[in-house]
Amino acid sequence: MPDYGNPLRFGVFPAPDADRLDETMATVRAAEHGGLDLVGIQDHPYQRRHLDAWALMATILARTERVSVFPDVANLPLRPPAVMAETAASLDVLSGGRFELGLGAGAFRQAVSAMGGPSRTPPEAAGALEEAVEVIRLMWWQRSSVRYDGRHYRLAGVKPGPPPAHDIGIWLGVGGPRMLAAAGRLADGWVPSSAYFPPEKLPAMAERIDAAAREAGRDPAAVRRIYNVMGTVDGSGAGSFQGPAHAWVEEFTRLAVEVGMDTFVFAPDQGGAAQVERFAAEIAPAVRGEVARLRGSG
Predict the structure, then answer these.
(1) For the segment 193-233, what is each residue's pLDDT rounded down to a tens digit?
(2) String of DSSP letters for 8-20
(3) Per-residue pLDDT reduced to its tens digit, 164-175
(4) How far apart (Å, rounded) are the C-alpha atoms in residues 83 and 80?
(5) Could you state, in order of their start, the residue ranges of all structural domains in the chain?
């Protein structure tokens, strides 16, 4: 797999639990002060312990100055895409261009249905996600009105706006063959998580994205690769991301130059802000330096 040469970025994936808000905000502050780039917030409205993702993202943007924020990933079945597009654009304007849009098809069908959302089969969910990408982009166009007539979503002469402050990326949190191909054709980024897709699964998945991008006449480098990694620095638990900082540096460097992953979003299994401080101080700069060295050597 090629290294597409995209700039490396690093972020955090804090827990959005209402009873851990102080810990969440301490993690965000550690990311902001440590020079990290992103904060990802999971969106599970049916999870009673979680704060609403969009309210929390707005709060984080209001309390930070530099870091960007994205839903990791937004729950499409419970969030109409036209309304989501306006909310995303509004947050981007209010934050001075610090919002990106992660989007998912909604994996927990029973929970979505229990909250009043549509109960879609996997093919239906995939089709709705593909349509949603098109609807959202139409809602960001500076046109007097837009129309869309899909199986799952319709726009009937709606007036789009406000426009985002920058070109918001649409990143798909997907793993199946059809949706990986859709990411290659349609999306600006791909967001797998190590809990579901450990490092050894990434090359084959990335190849499917690349093939679909080329078939659509796109440069595969246009699809950013954002990897949610769950683990503990100096940890000894199960999973791909444990052990000392140098082991993390080696693995991230390998994933960057051999698989094309360019963004690493850290979800500490334990330790919260202290783990993020180590991630920012010991891992992110070392990976940047090593990848720059390898790129410079050809």
Answers:
(1) 999 999 999 999 999 999 999 999 999 999 999 999 999 99
(2) PEEEE----BGGG
(3) 999 999 999 999
(4) 6
(5) 9-296
Candidates 3.50.30.10, 3.30.230.10, 3.40.50.620, 3.20.20.30; correct CATH number of 9-296?
Answer: 3.20.20.30
Q: What is the pTM of this model?
A: 0.96
* Dist CA 74 CA 117 (whole Å): 14
d(CA 196, CA 240): 11
Q: What is the pLDDT of residue 1?
A: 56
Give the HSE-up count for residue 271: Cα atoms under 13 Å, Cβ half-sphere: 19
Please state, in angstroms and rounded to a whole number, the distance separating the CA atoms of residues 70 and 186.
Answer: 18
CB count within 10 Å of CB 116 equals 9
Alpha-carbon span 139 to 271, nearest angstrom: 40
Cα separation, 271 vs 25, whole angstroms: 14
